[in-house]
Amino acid sequence: MTAPVLPGFDVEQKTVEIGGHTMAYVDEGSGPPVLHVHGNPTWSFYFRSLLSTLPGDGFRAIAPDHIGMGRSEKPALADYPHTLGRRVADLTAFVDALDLREPISLVVHDWGGPIGLSWAVENLDRVDKVVVLNTGAFPLPADKRIPWTLAAARLPVIGDVAVRRLNAFSLGALSLGSGRWLLGAEARRGLLAPYDSPAHRVAVHAFVQDIPTGPDDPAQPVLEHLAERLPLLDTRPVQVHWGMKDPVFDGTILRHLEGRLPHAEVHRYADAGHYVLEDAADRIVPRVRAFLAEGR
């Protein structure tokens, strides 16, 4: 797929075959690898503030686009399972395909948390450091309910019309996902660029439908397994950046995360939302750079 021409994201697009599908990724610089794992409805563009700076610090900054997302191949629903378990398998295959032998630092956001951290807890000896941006890494806690907007997007007919045909999920996130009333023009243009038709929004919709709300949902056992093993990551340096205006991954979710990772270095941003790296890049990027450089 041809890379969209986007201000602020002038990086080379590379590709690799993963599970019979073409996965696009960014691979900039050389040195210890830093693997960025995005969520929904974003793509590698979301990490551009880190991808443009970490190579200058002597790191190899890598950011894949999940299958169906960003500049990767966008298969039809019948041609790809679009499940959390498959996403974890794809990331595992991606790491192996790039032959990343050095310890890897992870930067995860949104669905990138369950995907990237599921890989990490099974490969602790290959993990250096972890940076967490507004995400969940466990089933929905008993004291937290799924917002009605996400519940509606999961409904078969309503969700198909709103998410796939009208692009309401991606468009709504530009406002609801920010601590501001609306993200800036560069961010809006870049985040929407790959999702320009209903056929290109299949994965966006599928990610929403994969949100588990009960034990029978396919993603539930994956999240339960991750929740059991997540405390193992407390033996690694973990830095957390949390937008406190996030309507989904709010203070309640953060408290549960801190309970599992009590030694994590946590930074709260009262003025930032779910797209915390968009709202607070000027504060987050320097902290991430210093965190990754510590001890080198």
Overview in brief:
It is built from twelve helices and eight strands.
Q: What order do the strands of the largest sheet run in, or round the barrel if closed? A: 1-2-4-3-5-6-7-8
> How much strand content do the residues show?
15-25%
For the CA atoms, what is the radius of gyration?
17 Å
Pick out the low-confidence regions.
none
- Structural class category: alpha/beta
Secondary-structure element order, N to C: EEEHEHEHEHHHHHHEHEHH
Distance between the termini: 37 Å
Q: How many helices does DSSP assign?
A: 12
Number of strands: 8
SSE layout:
Layout: E1 14-18, E2 21-28, E3 33-37, H1 48-51, E4 60-64, H2 84-97, E5 104-109, H3 112-122, E6 127-133, H4 148-154, H5 156-165, H6 168-176, H7 185-192, H8 202-209, H9 219-229, E7 238-243, H10 251-260, E8 265-269, H11 276-279, H12 281-293
Parallel strand pairs: 3-4, 3-5, 5-6, 6-7, 7-8
Antiparallel strand pairs: 1-2, 2-4
Helix pairs in contact: 2-3, 3-9
Characterize the structure shown:
With 296 residues, this protein is of the alpha/beta class. The protein is built from 12 helices and 8 strands. The chain has an 8-stranded mixed β-sheet with strand order 1-2-4-3-5-6-7-8, sandwiched between helices. The longest helix has 14 residues, at 84-97.
